[in-house]
Design a protein that fits this description.
Strand order of the largest sheet: 1-2-3-4-5-6-7
Order of helices and strands: EEEEHHEEE
Helix content: 10-25%
Shape: globular
Largest sheet: 7 strands, antiparallel
Radius of gyration: 17 Å
Number of helices: 2
Distance between the termini: 10 Å
Length: 122
């Protein structure tokens, strides 16, 4: 995950990348591979708290030949999560993150479901 400051000091951008391998059809030994990339806005809401809003989700590095070439050519854009929520529900849900440990190199946060996230300064 990459976090970068953008604009005012209380707002940041985060990019999360997860490599996935999924079965295409049950019973067949064929797998689709790719990297799911989520872009999110982070807003500092308290000394320990962040509000995370997903902006866009896209797939990169696909091993599916037709999809891979379409992704590289830009023919398949990212899914505009923020715009979809704003047009269908009026507001984009925000996920809360709370920092439990922080030093010069390491940050440990938890979300509302008690999942842990560990970030290291690069």
């Amino acid at each position: 995950q990459t976090i970068s400051r953008a604009g005012e000091a209380k707002r940041m951008k985060m990019v999360s990348e997860v490599d996935l391998e999924v079965g295409v059809l049950p019973g067949l030994p064929v797998q689709a591979k790719g990297t799911v990339q989520d872009a999110a806005d982070l807003e500092i809401v308290s000394p320990e708290g962040w509000a995370c809003t997903v902006v866009e989700t896209k797939v990169t590095n696909s091993n599916v030949p037709v999809l891979a070439s379409m992704l590289e050519d830009g023919a398949v854009p990212g899914l505009p999560i923020r715009q979809i929520y704003e047009s269908t529900r009026g507001a984009v849900p925000k996920a809360g993150l709370r920092t439990f440990y922080l030093d010069d190199i390491l940050r440990i946060t938890r979300d509302v479901d008690d999942n842990f996230y560990v970030w290291v300064r690069a």
